[in-house]
Design brief:
Pfam families: Peptidase_M19
Protein name: Peptidase M19
Largest sheet: 6 strands, parallel
Region (Disordered): 1-33
Strand content: 5-15%
Oligomer: single chain
Order of helices and strands: EHEHEHEHEHEHEHEHEHHH
CATH architecture: Alpha-Beta Barrel
CATH superfamily: Metal-dependent hydrolases
Radius of gyration: 19 Å
Shape: globular
CATH topology: TIM Barrel
CATH class: Alpha Beta
Distance between the termini: 28 Å
Number of strands: 9
Number of helices: 11
GO molecular function, one term: metallodipeptidase activity
Number of domains: 1
Structural class: alpha/beta
Helix content: 25-40%
Length: 364
């Protein structure tokens, strides 16, 4: 299907720098689990139809180990197998993204590009001699984005909730070098401030913060300071703004808050470095009352395990209620237009900037 005959797709690509393709209404009992595995995701006809109807061109999905009790390296290899099977079973809908040109191809063919990404790099291992080998394997398997840490500290550096706020460790430097060698994106979304700044200065390739907010507008650890945002942008990197409760101190973020953070990020980084990383799927939760009841238990479990973030509460939804579902991207485009943004700038924010960043990092 070409974009010329598809009324749902705009004339420019929409790229979600961190999101999902699942139908959250069809999930098995997963609310009490810290991390839902890829096998448990339900990527059904509704989810795919709504993702296409939203205009989505490509999405960086999370696979592999992020947190919990599963063995990081074996679990990550298994998740790669699972996602290869998911895509192979849906060739008319999905396209595995290995280079920026695959995103352009997905846009032209009316498919959705799937970018393999990690939200924790612990699977690279703790042996210096093995890090390069594992990164090379992940690259061969199609991984294109590697976030160094989740909220907590690991052996590479500190997450945003680690109180010590250390910088990159020695093994963290080794890992960044290996990711650079194999032209994988270094994502610093959940990293602590010093780890983020160290990685941005250390990396010979531009780095990204694929899903975050601006700490100048909401002083919470999951948001990034202007210093972090500016440094990433100055070095040719990318910053994606999320649709998450951390955009406000109240935890009840609105579509207007998303726009405010995008505008601030553009002011700090310039219009060529900012995009979106929603941190959620297109398909919306149907029964919000039932979801809220499950959410309280899930937030409490994350807190007990030490992996939650400041701003997560039982009364805060992990999405923006008035910016979800099939119309989320069209709504955001309309709100940006109302703020005076012209089509060229909007096209950059909605996907063009991520695509240009991918060209810079993934190009052979």
């Amino acid at each position: 299907m070409s974009t010329a005959t598809d009324p749902h797709r705009p004339g420019f690509p929409i790229v979600n720098a961190l999101g999902g393709l699942e139908n959250p209404n069809a999930e098995p009992e997963a609310a009490s689990q810290l991390q839902q595995t890829s096998e448990e995701l339900v990527i059904d006809a509704r989810a795919l139809a709504e993702a296409k109807a939203s205009g989505l061109t490509a999405v960086n999905i999370t696979l592999g180990y992020t947190l919990g009790e599963l063995p990081p390296y074996p679990h990550t290899l298994h998740e790669l197998d699972v996602w290869d099977e998911i895509i192979a079973a849906r060739p008319e809908h999905l396209l595995k993204v290995l280079r920026a040109q695959d995103i352009r191809r997905a846009h032209a063919e009316g498919r959705i590009g799937v970018v393999y990404g990690f939200q924790n790099a612990v699977a690279v291992g703790e042996e210096r001699a093995g890090i390069a080998e594992r990164v090379a394997l992940f690259a061969r398997r199609g991984v294109r984005v590697v976030q160094l840490t989740y909220n907590q500290a690991n052996h590479l550096g500190d997450g945003s909730m680690a109180p010590e706020n250390r910088g990159l460790t020695e093994l963290g430097h080794e890992t960044v070098a290996a990711l650079n060698e194999h032209r994988l994106m270094v994502d610093l979304s959940h990293s602590g401030e010093r780890t983020c700044l160290d990685a941005a200065r250390t990396s010979v390739s531009p780095v990204s913060i694929n899903h975050t907010g601006c700490r100048a507008l909401a002083d919470l650890p999951r948001n990034k300071t202007d210093e972090e945002l500016r440094l990433v942008a100055e070095r040719g990197g990318f910053v994606g703004i999320y649709f998450m409760p951390f955009l406000t101190l109240s935890g009840h973020a609105s579509a207007a808050d998303v726009v405010d953070h995008i505008v601030h990020a553009v002011d700090v980084c310039g219009e060529d470095a900012v995009g979106i990383g929603t941190d959620g799927p297109v398909t919306a939760v149907d029964d919000l009352d039932a979801y809220r009841a499950r959410l309280a238990a899930h937030v409490a479990e994350r807190a007990r395990a030490g992996v939650g973030a400041a701003g997560e509460r039982s009364d805060t939804l992990p999405f923006v209620e008035d910016l979800r579902g099939v119309d989320q991207f069209r709504t955001l485009i309309r709100l940006l237009e109302q703020r005076g943004y012209r089509e060229e700038r909007i096209a950059k924010i909605m996907g063009g900037n991520f695509l240009a960043y991918a060209d810079r990092v993934w190009a052979p």
